[in-house]
Amino acid sequence: MIRPITVGLDGSPESLAAADWAAREAQRRDLPLHLVHAWIWQPHDVPVAQDLDTQKHWALRILREAEEELRGRHPELTVSTEQISDTAAEVLLGQAEKAELLVLGSSGHSTVAGFLLGSVGQRVLARANSPVVMVRANARSAAKHDGGEVVVGLQDLGGPAGPLLEFAFDAAAARRTTLRAVHAPNLPPLYGYGPAVGRLASQNGGITGQAEQALSEVLEPWREKYPQVPVAHSVDLARASGVVLQAAAQAGLVVVGRRVHRPALGMRIGPVAHAVLHHAAAPVAVVPHD
Fold this sequence. Notes:
The protein is of the alpha/beta class. It has helices at residues 13-29, 52-73, 88-96, 119-127, 162-175, 195-202, 207-225, 240-247, 271-279; strands at 5-8, 33-38, 79-84, 101-105, 132-135, 150-154, 179-183, 231-235, 253-259, 284-289. The chain has a ten-stranded mixed β-sheet with strand order 3-2-1-4-5-10-9-6-7-8, with helices on both faces. The two termini are 25 Å apart.
């Protein structure tokens, strides 16, 4: 069965920007687009400001207007809608199980503010089993930036990163653009980030050389699988979040990973993903992997 690209709509400008981005992504990947609205957005134990009939009618209007606009822009795209009576987080997590990827809008209003994640977004990002893309209502999410590089941040080169790299290479292939892989090695505590690291890195076979070799080896099978995708990669002895954000300055899409099998950490998604979500201007995909 063909899995759709699914968008969570709540009527906000951010969710409409997410729907517009998702429609272009679905067209690039030749996938259907599915628009979903959870019309009981408040938790069940909180009084609902509007009566349910009014809320349901408003939800149907959001879906209908978004569908009509997207069909007008992309007449060849298969678009479906669904209205579900449940809280937003549960609806979106359920939809993620059936989707190729889930797309949500962020509430960030500037590059500095970044993705201001509410409780719904945090819960979905931390628990979804499919990739989740966060899209801001800004110029970096517009069609003119779709051809920008796909930047993927790789943290642990010794661990399995198949889903992360597969998603990133698929995205670059669909856009016919470059994939840029960046990596910041975990430095020994003795060295920190001071001059000693620079001296060590300059030595033949030092941290940088070893990491570059390891990164090249990790990427090699994917270069062979996607020969049409130009690949650039780099290693930097700096904080991982800063390395990814620097590479992402002009990116069309940023891809970061979230480990699935972690100790119980509540709603955390990892420090690098968290920082990138809060500060990147481009759409950010968070990909769960082992």
